[in-house]
Here is the input.
Amino acid sequence: MTAHPLIQVIGLRKAFGGHVVLDDVSLEVRAGEAVALLGPNGAGKTTLLRILATLLRPSRGVARVAGYDCLRQAERVRAHMGLLAHGAWVYEDLTPFENLKFWATLGGLPHGRDALNGALAAVELDRVADERVRTLSLGMKRRLALARFVLARPPVLLLDEPFAGIDQRAGKWLDGHLGAFKAAGSAILMTTHSFGRGLGVADRIAILAAGRVAHDTPLGALTLDDVRRLYELHAEDGA
Amino acid sequence: MSYARRTWIVLWKDLLSERRSKEALNALFFFALLLLFLFQFALGDERERLTAALPGLLWLGFILSGLVGLGRAFLAEREHDCWEGLLLAPGDKSAIYLGKVAGNLLLMLLVEAILLVLFAVFFNIDLAAHPLRLTVVIGLGTIGFAAVGTLFAAMTAHVRARELLFPVLLLPVQVPVLLGAVKATEAVLLGEPLGAVGHWLGLLAAADAIYLTTGVLTFDAILEA
Here is the structure.
């Protein structure tokens, strides 16, 4: 693949006091590529995403998003990145339309009625656009979060367990949409525990264990069983 | 224009959420009612004692109900990690601060208006004799309270003992506002012109300016912390 790296991590280290969470982590994700970050709980997956999203400062090393340094050019990084973390950033007492209007206006994105309705239709929430978010399912709230990306079209998507807590149908739907983002040239880095769903859209897997990238390989001809074996091998080594 | 629009959208979101849920308003209303029952019980019908204590009681009511309301100012932001969204939003974060202050200010003014009516009914006193003067004093006092209260609510939003820490941090900083507001309210209730309490009003205006400026300058760092 010749596309330039939109996510670049070089020798990254993060320690909380004396506890080292990431140690000498290096990783690249190129435009139009999706990388699934696998690893047991506590391996440092979320910490890595939070550093890339400028929510945490690295202790050492370099993290770049769209060519911008996550430490020194945080504002630029934020303008080129979309984050879907554990929370969906929704206000329960507002409707999907109002939530989207709020985040679009705050983020300087198109926030006219047509643009907002178009984004809601793209994530198939147009029929519940005027219902309160507290009545929606978790999968629908995740879709509402994705509607922000439809408006912003960020070149980099950082997704923390995007398939957690959603059913098969919603997972399939999410797979399709992430594929569309990838096809449009976005770089996707996602953490996942779900081999079946998460790997559907991934081109590469990187296994984090004990704060290090223990394995980084194209998914290519690997079967799910191969991935599971690799995961178990490295997860047990790192534990 | 973008700055004003971002301030407005935060205010719009807070007011709309509150209009739908009425969580803060209901809590504040019943809290205010409870306070008035306590005041009534403690003071009885003795008018002299009541007149002397009234400005202090009014502001005690405002401050206590304000503490309850301001303590909840960032509750919605903690749900679904909306705090992260505010932090990652591009542009000057002080627009978010001013939107939150405006929302809290409007809510507090509404509760204060209800409290004033309840005071007038419960204690059979005429608070409407000098409405404009009273509005100026209460407005100046409440702006300062909302400005610094919103800032401290943001500072303590992620602290485990925030219910304890929030008033402990806020009340000492509020002393100039409380002092000026109680003294100016006392003078207004006695029928004195605003000119007679110019120095207290000056103190309130200065405190408002200092608190708002501090909030605008530091909110970004508080959000990032």
In short: Residues 2-224 of chain B form one domain. Chain B has ten helices and no strands.
